[in-house]
Design goal:
This protein is an alpha+beta fold. It has helices spanning 4-18, 74-90, and strands at residues 26-27, 39-42, 46-52, 59-71, 97-110, 113-125. It is elongated.
C-alpha cells in the first residue's frame, strides 16, 4: 500500500508531465498570490475508511484525493478537466484506483476576475 506522500507525489508528477496547458502550475494548496490561469490544486490525500470483513481476514483502506481545476472560461474548464480525468484513467495508481468522479463545476468572482472551478475526486483502495 502506498503512503499519502507517495500518492501525492505520483499524482503531482503525472499532472505536471501530462497536462501541458498548466505549464507546471500544479499546487498542493490554493496559492496565496493569485496564479496565472489555468492551474490545478491537489488536496492532501485523506484516509477515508477501514472495512473489516466478518472473518477479519481482509482489511481495506480507502484514500480520497480532491483535484481542483481552475480556468478562465467554462469551455477551457471542460477541456482541461477531461484531460485530467483521461490522465488518471490511463495511469492506474498502484493497481488501486477505485473511482474517478467529476463532482461538478462552479463559476465565481475572485479578485475581480471570473474564474471557473471543477472538482475531480480520485478514490484509491487497498
Amino acid at each position: 500500500m502506498a503512503t499519502k506522500k507517495e500518492i501525492f507525489l505520483r499524482l503531482l508528477e503525472l499532472l505536471k508531465n501530462n497536462i501541458p496547458e498548466v505549464n507546471n502550475r500544479v499546487y498542493s494548496a490554493y496559492p496565496k498570490k493569485e496564479p496565472t490561469l489555468p492551474f490545478i490544486v491537489i488536496s492532501n490525500p485523506e484516509y477515508e475508511e477501514k472495512e473489516f470483513l466478518i472473518d477479519d481476514s481482509v482489511i481495506s483502506y480507502t484514500f480520497t484525493v480532491d483535484i481542483y481545476v481552475y480556468t478562465q472560461t467554462s469551455q477551457e474548464l471542460d477541456e482541461l478537466s477531461q484531460k485530467v480525468i483521461d490522465v488518471l484513467r490511463n495511469n492506474d495508481f498502484y493497481g488501486a484506483t477505485k473511482s474517478i468522479r467529476d463532482e461538478g463545476s462552479a463559476e465565481y468572482k475572485k479578485s475581480n476576475k471570473i474564474m471557473h472551478e471543477d472538482l475531480i475526486t480520485l478514490e484509491l483502495q487497498w
